[in-house]
User: Fold this.
Amino acid sequence: MAPRVTILLFATARLAAGASELRWPVEPGGLPLGSLVRSLGSRYPKLAPILPTCRFVLNGRYVVSRATRVRPGDKFAVHPPYGGG
Amino acid sequence: MTVSVHLTRRPLSVAAAMRVLSGPGLGGVVVFAGRVRPDRTPAGRVTKLEYEGDLALARSVLADLERTAQRRFGAVRIVLWHRFGTIKVGEVSVLVGAACGHRSAAFDAARYLIEELKRSVPIWKTERARPARRPRRPPYRRRGRASG
Assistant:
């Protein structure tokens, strides 16, 4: 089985992709976060316009740099703007 | 309930929050309760909200907020409680409280906590609305017989 990253989608991102969790195949060495986000937008066109407004979380920590490497076995979460309260 | 940070499906109680926020020397206590409004939307009148969250991260961010408020405002006791799941109109979705020695710090701390909660805690809501009824057509009137 190909190495994979688990992608968690919330709120509008979940609705746009039609799934709350994706198992995303990646190369054994992983890929930069920016590339992963671009591929997500290409695979799910309804998600593409939402992604620039999102925060990203890798293994429970916010990540800002698009160069951060996402590796097989990682958990990557897509957070649209928050709306609690 | 005795914890400062709490995410739950169960109803939130102001009385329980007041118990957590009590203590010797705590002369200023501010509690904010956010309730679900029956707003009008293009889809109809809101009847309930569905809350979801990245709960593990939400707990961690709430705990950071608690520490910051304690440091910045000298808040001695804090309540940061949020519900998730289905919440009907009129029910409380969030309770934020701060207990300090005096009112000014308590107001500042509570205001800071609710604003930061809305801005930085990974929780989302989706409105569920009841579509408005289509306006009824006026009743059909039979033409009366001509008199005379």
